[in-house]
Amino acid sequence: MSLKSCNNMPIGGIYVSLRVKMLLWVTVPVTLVFLAVLGVVGTTVRSTSIDQLEDKVLATTFQYANQVQNDFLHMTQTAVKLRDGFIGLREAGATREQYHNLLKSTLDGDPFIFGIYTVWEPDKLDGDDDAHRDRPYHNEDGRYAPWVARSNGKAAIQPCTAEGGYLKPGGFYLSIKDSKKARIFPPSTWTFEGSKVTVVDYGIPIIHEGEFLGAMYSELEISGLREIVGNIRPLETGYASIMTDQGIYAASPEEEVLGKKSQNPRIDDIIKATSQGNPYSITVNHPEGTMLHQYVPVFIEGVDRPWIFELAFPMGKAMAPIRKLTFTIAILAAVSLIFVVCLLWSISKRITDPIRKVAAIAQRAGEGDISAREADFGNIPNDEVGDLAQSLALMLEAQRYMIGRAIEQSDRTTDKARSMADMSDRTAQAMEQIRGAVFQVVSDLETSSASLEQANAGIEEIAGGAVSVAERTTDGAEIAARTSDRAERSASYMSGLMDEVATAERMSRSSSSDMEQLGESVKSISSFVETITKIADQTNLLALNAAIEAARAGEAGRGFAVVAEEVRKLAEESSVAAGRIDGLIEGLKSQTVKSMEVTRGNASSMAKALSLAESTKQEMTESIKDVHNLNEAIQDIAAVAQEQAASSKEMALALDSVTSAVAQMAERVHSVKSSSDNTLRTAEEMASGSKGLLKDTEELKEDMDKFKL
Question: How many domains, in total, are found in the chain?
Fold first, then answer.
């Protein structure tokens, strides 16, 4: 994998910028806190407001109930005062007229009271009921049971009816007589002087010295209570009503329910709670809005079960300011949240910009551009980001130094490899020339051998026939001359061959020395690569430490983790590049060792060829001497023909010796030819190895050139 192919590789999925993460990490909790606070505040304010409002409604309901209770108190006190007055008059022996006057004066003096009446047991008032039978203001039985009411603005007296009235079982009189307790009766509507009136009756027993004497009653017209209830309109849509202890409406803004029992499904619970003296409240949804119905007891003197005062309070309207306040708080919270988000966006930019700059430089380094200097980082804050930037700058500086040295060494190695390749080519060319010269020497030696054989045949013919000695001697002289010339040329060729072999041997030694220097250079490059690998390992360790520190920093250190990952990737890529370079260097080492072995073998072959050439030269020198001697002998034969027969045998022996020497020289030249062939192959192998070494060094240089210093 190339350095460039590792760029922009996502780590763990979709790429999300650190700035967005910081904004999310802070905004989401802040939003949740804002919402939680808003919810708590809203709930608390609403709950507190509802509690306070309910307390206020309860207090207001009690206030109105006390006002109604005061009206009832006035009615009960009137009955109590008349009862006590009647007992006093009875003790004083007053007349029934005096009783009438007390009733009328009480009614005239109290416009709040609609009517007053009393019923006495037979003969319990004055013991004179029979005397008052069918008398004015009396019934036929003469019992004292007057009813005083206003007529045309004045008190008027008329008797209470007996049948269907005070004698009715469970009626207003017998119920008190039976219970011996005070009682307030439900509202009743009837016609009085042509008009319908609705009144509430309150009665108390008249007991003296333990004896039940009768009952005293006072009446309260319900219109007064209705006026009180009608004036109670909390927040315009609220209303009030009064119910008896049985849940029957005595006063209500809805006239159709008057005298009827409430249809509230919880009326029994309401009656139970108020009869125990406790308030009771329920919330009901009406078309007009949510209503809080508050019920409180209205205590009446002497009555066991209180009446009930109801106040319907419009909670929807009452909570409108609370809802408005909650909405205002929500608006302020939203504005504050937007301000916090904007502030965080600005702060995150100041934090992430240096990180982005460091990441960009690290990415460039991952692509092979390690030319960034410390000044290229700009104004980095003096914090963890600054430490990371400084560490990255130091790492890049170290890599620039080591890679620069590696590039220089690679250039030197390339030059030496190129020089060695050229030298190998020249060696191969020289060996080709030597090979051609050896071929020529072999050809000349073969020709000389054939000539010597012909000379030997001629000498044998001379020995066989002295007749043709002169002619044969002349031919032998010419052949000897030619043989001498060829031998001298062969010696000349052999000298040139020795010079070329010596040159090849020196070049082989020089190549061996250069190859050894090249091996040392490769070792130097290997040490540089090891240093680069160590730097990459240290960089990887530095990135790991940075990632650990980022993990310790929590969510705020995620940006450092990203940069540390980029640095770690750069270290891995540097390590991969160093590994590749190390592989190339290992190849170079192998090629170098092979070339050194070939060069040493070439040098050894050259040394052997040189030794053989020296031996051949010596033999050829001896052969030339023999040829010269042969030539002189033939000339002597030509000069002294008489001695031909005697010396023909010696000449034949000399020719045999020359022929043998030439044959040996031919064999040695063939050995030289074989050595030159081996040397040529070795030179070609060395040239091939040198070219492979040159290719590897050029690839190494290309890899090094990818780094921008």
Answer: 2
